[in-house]
Amino acid sequence: MKMNIKIKKINQNATIPTRGSKYAAGYDLYACIDEPVTIKPHETVKIGTGLAFELEVNTFGAIFARSGLATKQALRPANCVGVADSDYRGEYIVSLHNDSEIERVVNPNDRIAQLVVKPVIQAVFSEVSFL
User: Fold this and answer.
1) According to DSSP H, which parts of the chain are helical?
2) For residues 111 and 29, is the Cβ–Cβ distance under 8 A?
3) CA separation for the pair 97, 45 (Å, rounded)
4) I need a labelling partner for 101 at 20 to 30 A (CA). Which of 1, 5, 27, 38 fits?
5) How confident is the model over 61-73, as pLDDT tens digits?
6) What is the pTM of this model?
């Protein structure tokens, strides 16, 4: 199944998301920064992607850690999984947290997270006396 997702470059240096393989679930998001950013141990820094998205209704963008970045450099999204609703039109920004005891550096165009587009199931909650 394919879905057409509109992307707007907020910054002309932004990189359009890419997949690592034909069957990869996630699309790599890239750091759109002018110079390297140092993240101190146990610090969180917001890194912009320079991109805004228009996702289809009843979908959302789940922003996950890149396994290589998390295991090799101990950098992960601060909220573990970001949720970008289909009606959000602002820049996708990843708050990277450094779980290590040493400073880490994010360079321009580094892959910083991965975006997985997922369906939304609308729920109706019914209060009951017992389950």
Assistant:
1) 67-73
2) yes
3) 7
4) 27
5) 999 999 888 888 9
6) 0.92
